[in-house]
Structures are given as C-alpha cells and as structure tokens.
Amino acid sequence: MEKSNCSRARQILDSLVSFLRKFIFRILSMGPLPNHIAFIMDGNRRYAKKLNLIDGAGHKVGFLAVTSMLKFCYELGVRNVTIYAFSIDNFKRSPEEVQSLMELMQEKIEGLIKDESIVNCYGVRVYFVGNLKLLSEPVRLAAERAMLATAKNSKAVLSICVAYTSTNEIVNAVEESVEEKWNQITVLEASGAGYGLIKLGGIEHHESEPLIKLVDIEKHMYMAVAPDPDIIIRTSGEARLSNFLLWQSAFCYLYSPSVLWPEIGLRHFLWAILNFQRHHSYLNKKGEQLQHLLQDGF
Prior knowledge:
Layout lengths: L1 H27 L7 E5 L3 H7 L6 H20 L3 E8 L7 H18 L5 H4 L2 E6 L7 H13 L6 E9 L1 H26 L6 E2 L2 E2 L10 H5 L12 E4 L18 E3 L10 H32 L1
Parallel strand pairs: 1-2, 1-7, 2-4, 3-4, 7-8
Antiparallel strand pairs: 5-6
Helix pairs in contact: 2-3, 4-6
C-alpha cells in the first residue's frame, strides 16, 4: 500500500513538473528560438571519477542527460540537434576504453530503432556524421540501420557526430569538391565541349571566377544535413570547441556551464536559451554581415 502511494505521488509530481516545463517553454517561444543546438558532452569520465564509479559508468549516466536534452529541445520546438559523441582523437585512448565506448554506442544506437525510442516519439530523423569508415563494423552497420529506420521521420533532425573532427570534415569536403570538379571537366573534355580547359601543367580559367566555390565545399560537408548551429553548449566550464563545427560556428552563441555532462539539467538549458535570446539581434546581424562578405569574396 505504501509503495502504491509513493508511486502515485511520483506520477503526480512528474505531471506537475512536465506542466511547469511546458508552461515555461510556451513563454520562451514568444521570443526568438534557436533552430539548431549542438552539444559537446564533456565530463563523463570526470563524473565517474568524482563519484568513484567503475570505468564507463559516467558515459552510461551521461546518456540519460542526452535523453533529457533531446526531450527539452524537441518540446521547445528546436528542429535540429547535434551531439558530439566521439571524436577521431578519442581513438587514441586505451584500446579497452575505446572498445567499451564502441559497445555502449552500438547498444544505444540499436535502441534508437525501437518504436518507443525518443526519436520515434518525436518524429526525429537521425544522421550519423563523420568518417564512419573508422568505426568498427558492428557500430557502423548499426548506424546505417538507424539512419534507414528513421529516414521517414520528418519533424526534427538529430545529427550524431562520431569519428568526427572539424578539420577532417573540411579536408574531406575540399577533396570531394576537387574530385567532383575534375570529373566534370574531364567529361566536358571527352565530349569536346571543354574548350581545352585541361592543359599540361594545370587548368586554365579566369582568375575572377574560381573553379571551386564556397557552395561546392559546403555541399560536401558532413554537416550539410543541418543548418549552422545557433547555440553550442559545452559542459565542464571549458570554453573551447575541441575541433567541433569550426566551419559552422562563426557566429553562434557558446554556453559553457561548469557542471559535468551527466549533471546538466533544465536550468542550464533554460539559461542557454535566455542568453541566446538576449544576444540574438547582435548574432543575427553579424551572421548576415559574414554571409555578405563570403558571397562577395567567393
């Protein structure tokens, strides 16, 4: 009987908290809302060490924080969310830790396919972003299955950066752009419509009209699946991007709460939104100025 009363009280409390949260979100929605929030999930290992937990336990607790942040974003109406799940640099960690993280990642990815998963509840399409060839085969195949299973979801987008660094993304985009342009010119030359573009020692073209343009590179970016982020939230109080979305984050708002990732909560999320709204006009103005400069220069 006592257990039943406790369960009932818990349900009432959860309902009240949910109502208050949605009420706050309704008020926030009267101001400008971010279209894209990105998260750098820093502090999982330090959290485990802080609480004397076994290795890997911090990342498991951190997944609960991921679920909460996704829920807050989609309830508020944020259409695009990106999480930095695994950097290429993380492969330098001990083989045991990397293997443990890969197994945990595979488990959580397979959970995304389930009907009751958060991505299916909110109609979210999932993309895995990065150099996926570096992943172990089971993880890569699980990622491909998750992307296929959620391909028809259209209400929101979740980009999961794995085996990712921004420098790798930029280099890959440049390489693909050059290869694409070279193939186009080769086809034109073979058909006789290239007008001698290919010459010994290089390609002749007008200096004022570059062969590779900004739009060519951007369409080959891993993160072409989403617009540039409006907010990047990095926990642990670290005010650095750690090779994450460097190309896309020129004028986004960076929020660095001092809490470790598993400790992030609603109050930190609300503070990020409020500060974004406070700086929105300035950031929007600077972003437009940058776009004009890039368009003029490229």
